[in-house]
Design goal:
337 residues, alpha/beta, Rossmann fold, 2 domains, eight-stranded mixed β-sheet, four-stranded antiparallel β-sheet, 12 helices, 12 strands, globular, disordered N terminus, binds adenosine-5'-triphosphate, binds magnesium ion
Length: 337
């Protein structure tokens, strides 16, 4: 935020350049190997000690007097459910990453990994929801402060349609504003604006109840309900998982358009590798349980329509690479390693 152009420039530079630059400026920083694939650059970082990062957006510049605010920061985070009890279970272990603020843009982080590796646990730790919050070890910070519970700076959209059944589309979308005491006239005006923003029809849809909507329409309502509060961080847990392929592609395009407008940082969990590669600026690949960030891939931003970009060979190359990586993680899990 304080450096209007700097972060964008950093982000545009290739990962290889940024890795060697950070190693030069800090001789103690471990060299992290990188590998170019398709539309992305893989950063091999599974051997990184907690808190040591080498990508451009993650390494503080020791020479800079201006602090860039971290939007989300995990430092050595471990979550053990039912800690101290016979059924204790460690879902994620020693997870560290930093997502910096990208001024006038916000970063889009796709999160992939085998089922049960702790993706939802990570999102809910950011959201400050119990029982994921608080972490068993380590710290979770949002905008530089320890997370102490849910807050309006973070919005969530889940796979299961989470609208209130007894509220209309308009009342669902304006629910958060109502909780904040915004006057009916003002919130309904804003609500109708957001109905349009997510591609619904004000006249036809505003008075409908959730049971009268398709799955795609309900997710549009959920997105509008979250974005109307203008959160700095948007947490999306498989939001399009239940949609048919065509609706899913159009929702991806919708999301890209909205994300550019709201300029928030998005964490997007998905089982669709295509979706993560298309939407993400960066993809985190989690290892199998207990999860940790095994790989990080910087990918091309979604600067063309989903259906078009996802047909490209280099896009597919990245998808195949990640598919193999996740399959290897699954195999390790099956082998109990
Ligand atoms: N409240 C809880 N109490 C105990 N264990 C839990 C709890 N929530 C999650 N777990 C366990 O923690 C592990 C990680 O769960 P999590 O829901 O984060 O995985 P995930 O990566 O989101 O999986 P999926 O892709 O299937 O959604 C799983 O083994 C799960 O059983
Ligand atoms: Mg999950």
């Amino acid at each position: 935020m304080n450096e209007p152009n700097k972060k964008t420039d950093d982000h545009a530079s290739s990962t290889n350049e940024s890795v060697s630059a950070s190693a030069d400026s800090n001789p103690q920083a471990p060299i992290v190997s990188t590998e170019d694939i398709g539309v992305g650059t893989v950063i091999h970082r599974s051997d990184q000690p907690a808190g040591q990062h080498a990508s451009s957006s993650q390494t503080p510049n020791p020479g800079s007097s201006i602090e860039t605010v971290s939007v989300v920061e995990f430092d050595g985070v471990t979550k053990t459910y039912n800690a101290g009890q016979p059924n204790a279970f460690t879902a994620i272990k020693d997870v560290s990453f930093v997502v910096k603020d990208v001024p006038d843009a916000g970063e889009f982080i796709g999160i992939l990994g085998p089922s049960g590796c702790g993706k939802s646990t990570i999102l809910k730790l950011i959201a400050g929801l119990k029982p994921q919050h608080p972490p068993t070890e380590g710290s979770v910070k949002v905008l530089g402060r320890d997370v102490t519970g849910p807050g309006a700076d973070r919005g969530m959209v889940f796979q299961d349609y989470t609208s209130f059944d007894h509220r209309t589309v308009l009342d669902n979308i304006t629910f958060g504003l109502e909780c904040h005491g915004v006057r009916r006239k003002v919130r309904e005006e804003l609500g109708r604006h957001w109905i349009e923003q997510v591609g619904l029809n004000v006249t036809e849809d505003q008075h409908k109840y959730p049971h009268e909507l398709s799955g795609g329409m309900r997710q549009r309502v959920a997105i509008a309900r979250s974005l109307i509060l203008r959160p700095r961080v948007i947490l999306m847990d498989e939001p399009f998982g239940a949609l048919d392929p065509q609706t899913r592609l159009s929702m991806q395009d919708l999301l890209v358009g909205l994300w550019r407008k709201v300029q928030a940082t998005v964490f997007f969990v998905t089982h669709s590798i295509e979706e993560a590669v298309y939407l993400g600026d960066r993809v985190y690949v989690l290892s199998s349980s207990p999860g940790t960030v095994a790989r990080e891939v910087e990918v091309e931003p979604p600067n063309r329509p989903a259906a078009e970009m996802q047909r490209e060979q280099k896009f597919q190359d990245t998808v195949y690479y990640l598919r193999d990586l996740i399959a290897a993680e699954e195999a390790l899990k099956q082998a109990g390693m």
